[in-house]
Design goal:
Structural class of chain B: mainly alpha
Radius of gyration of chain B: 23 Å
Helix content of chain A: 40-55%
Number of helices of chain A: 22
Shape of chain A: elongated
Radius of gyration of chain A: 33 Å
Largest sheet of chain A: 8 strands, antiparallel
Shape of chain B: globular
Oligomer: heterodimer
Number of strands of chain B: 4
Chain lengths: 680, 563
Amino acid sequence: MKRNRNNRLFDGTLLRRSLRASFVKLDPRVMIKNPIMFTVEAVTFVMLLLIFYIAFTGDTSQGSLLYNIVIFLVLLATVLFANFAEAIAEARGKAQADSLRKTREDTPAKRIGTDGKIHTVSSSDLKQGDIFECVAGDTVPADGEIVEGLASIDESAITGESAPVIREAGGDKSSVTGGTKVLSDRIRVKVTARPGESFLDRMIALVEGSSRQKTPNEIALTILLAGFTLVFVIVCATLKPFADYVGANITVAAFISLFVCLIPTTIGGLLSAIGIAGMDRALCANVITKSGKAVETAGDIDTLLLDKTGTITIGNRKATAFHPAGGCDRQEFIRRCVLASVADQTPEGKSVVELGAAEGIRIDPLHSVGVRMVKFTAETKCSGVDMPDGRRIRKGAAEAILRLAAEHGNACPEEVEQTVRRVSGNGGTPLVVCENEKIIGVIELQDIIKTGIRERFERLRRMGVKTVMVTGDNPLTAKYIAQKAGVDDFIAEARPEDKLEYIRREQQAGKLVAMMGDGTNDAPALAQADVGVAMNSGTQAAKEAGNMVDLDNDPTKLIEIVEIGKQLLMTRGTLTTFSIANDVAKYFAIVPALFITSIPALQSLNIMHLHSPESAILSAVIFNAIIIPLLIPLALRGVTYKPIGASALLRRNLFIYGLGGIVAPFIGIKLIDMFISMFF
Amino acid sequence: MNTEILGVVLQWVLLVVLCYPLGRYMAKVYKGERTWLDFMAPVERLIYRLCGIDPSQEMDWKKFLKALLTVNLFWFFWGMVLLVCQGWLPLNPDGNPGQTPDLAFNTCISFMVNCNLQHYSGETGLSYFTQLFVIMLFQFVTAACGMAAMAGIMKALAAKSTKTIGNFWVFLTKSVTRILMPLSLVVGILLVINGTPMSFDGKQTLTTLEGSEQVISQGPTAAIVPIKQLGTNGGGYFGTNSSHPLENPNAFTNILECWSILILPMSMVFAFGFYTRRRKLAAWIFTVMLFAFTTGVVVSVWQEMNGNPHIDEMGVAQDLGSMEGKEIRIGSGASAMWGMVTTVTSNGSVNSMHDSQTPLSGMLQMLNMQINCWFGGVGVGWMNYFAFLIIAVFISGLMVGRTPEFLGKKVEAREMKIATLVVLMHPFLILVGTGIAAAVAAANPEIGWLNNPSFHGLSEMLYEYTSSAANNGSGFEGLADNTPFWNISTGIALIMGRYFPIVGQVAIAGLLASKKFVPESAGTLKTDTGTFSLMTFAVIIIVAALSFFPALALGPIADYLTI
């Protein structure tokens, strides 16, 4: 499957656009949203005033003009780097979304007027509720729901999947997306979202920041970081009287440098970029999120509800054997089975016809004139045909057919019961067939479990996520497949309300639940779930109810979404740790530098043996500034998630980002100092 | 010399060995389970009846805190009236006059917040009546108040999901009747046996060996000293606190009193483990605290027993270590140990002059109080650690890719706000206070507050505010602190340093308790592991200790490097 992955982090146009944006973002009204970087901007402004003061008065008690200008520039760069991080994350998300949007701009739409005639208008003129027509070769102008007709559609522009899909009016596959191409037939579509209000547009607005709200977790982290900033305001402000008391003279530049180095600028500068990048990554995986919170919640998921079909097993069950019973002739039995299935368009029905053909029984659909189809319904749980001669052939779930037989006073042959049990026990699904309410045999359907799915569930289990298989199968079959695929729990004979019930029960136990669905009857469960992913092919109701839309219609996508969510939180946590751990080295670089001139004995605190007080301070602020752009790639890509259990993960990240955060600046500052001391 | 080290080791072992069973007993007391002290139940019932308390009433965290603050306000007025009027009250054989209102105010606040900063001398400033019914009473009830707050937090954290966190009055009463009283009785009797006075007679006049006359103060000392130590109060009966030969007669009583300081804060950690059935978590918290405490003890004992290098250079023998400001019957090792024990807890009683200890010991004493959670005050020490724990949980939780949880409760913006404020308040009080004082002292060199100029002078001021904010109450001394400036500013630090954290920490626990319980999974951050404990330790060092690094660099570190 092709993905819209853009692995190049820095593309020329993006870079230019982001550079411009980083200057625009210097506007204090924008900066105030990020309290940490706002304080840096404020003190940078103070440095600017100081430079003017020195330039006009020639007073050098605050250090040379050049030195102050350099400090000012480094501080300004710190702010710009932080702005750049945010801008590049925004630009990447926008570019990603733009490429999706481009496909749908200004396509002609054949709108059907109130008079029933077709007018060709621009897609941007379509309003919600309008009906338009598409024939083979047309590009669908807007998101909508098919109200009439059936068509095969190429969705590769959105999903990257080249095989065409069938969309038809009514049912769960009625939705079309703007930008996709109709390959055959004719459909009439009702517009469900005005241009500019579709999910994609909503997501673009989220990424661009116009409607981006901080997630609860981001708010909590901002509070913590603001708290740290306040501590260091106090530390630096009170240092002035202490120094005065012991007679040490400290320059304004030194105070400001100490302050900027101590406050968590690294995480402060990258925080919003990390959040946006999380949504970008979701978009890269072809998932549109309706809020940043949804991505974050995905990382917390405890329980994952997965449909069996398509997720755990390949496609659908297939008929694998016929088991006639009650003295019914084998050939006759197969014949009836095929008869009952010939007009049945469900995958199971088709597979019965195929298997019948393989056994030499073919029935031309033309021969079935006068045959009345009995469609499958959720109540009867069976389907079949009424023959012109009055015979009623039904096939369906064992319990439904057995009940039907029992209602008419027909006993169930012992061998049928045995066969049903045996087939179920082997993970198959028995379809019991009856003629005139008399049981004549069993069709065995088997599921084929996807390769590699077991390993994915194992991975989820190590993440602490419980997987639940949802299936319409009977409990025996469900249990067998559940065991074989390695899921933790299953809901058998599931009706839509069972899903809802299960989700509620899990939530009452304090768990967060994610599920994927496409049908209208999934909508309540999608809305109830903490993370509800609707398939793009699903109904409008489902898409509205969920908080994410998967453009690929890939049921295993949930697993990926969970990892994206975890990555997002982890990136925040590790960079916070790194940022705070950096302070240790910065203290040892700057504090001795502040006092060495007045108190030479404090030289022994200069454990890095930095060249001079000025070079020490400069090295620390330079390190503090350049660490931001150096970490932008990490912030955008996210920290790699490894499902090795929470304790091991903490140990690993604490080692890399905690210990690394302590050691890296010692080395970095020393190197910069060695470089600077060549000039001073 | 070896005996001195053995004495220090013995104290350490006695503490570590005995705190475990005591912790289990304390958990039982607060849980209301059967203990061998159940014969106190009628006494408790009588107290409840007299005070109109319904012991079965459950309080939510707001009600709990309201009760706590109300009873503190009541004690304040109680203390004020008795101290001002003590001259007319009974049990005043020496005829000491009533305290002036401003001194009474200071004394009252300081004892009410379990700090016991003393701007008076016990021999002349108090009568036996006020010693017993203000000082000793406060030493019992304020310690019990901290323990009750801790009990509320334990109840909140033990439950899966609860709106109520227990009854403050019951916790308060039981802390006194089941824990503080019985232990104080045992310690008191041992002190009396070793020569600490216990009488209501007035001063004794003796003729010394030199033939001169000396007036010796005495009184119900043995009643007050045990609770002074056990309740991490620290306010001495005599002006010179536990360096006074009647308050702390010999090496045995020194070990006993030193043990009494730390035993309840240590036991409280295990009590938490038993109460919440998180023994492994408690053991790890204990390990972190013990590690930090022991490191301090080793460095300080080594520093003090080594003495001052300049004295060595002068060719003067100092086999006993640095003895300036220390008692010869106690020795430098035990004095250093006491200095660490009294500052890791919020005790503040002293058996030597902290001002005279070597600079690194002075720095460690300050650091202990600046961090204020290596065991800490009874109840409140663990609660301070709890605030850091919440911050560590938050950062580590993110690092493992989950919204942070502690004991199955999600830690969100509201809890973070409170925890951050609580953690912020401590450096704020200390640094801003010292900053103002330093600015005043620098602007008015003639003000005459300080015995020492320069770095040591800064240390003296820093120590005073550190001790106030940490509710410790010990002084670096060498500071003329009985002036309106110091009385008022440290008074503010005392009140803020006591009630702000208690309210915040109980609120966090109350808020967490009312949340939905999230069951553990493989993805949940485990807080009872070495890695997480290391993380908490790092957070404390970087956030709490390093905030003071610039100030300490100008104070004790500069002092040490320029000695």
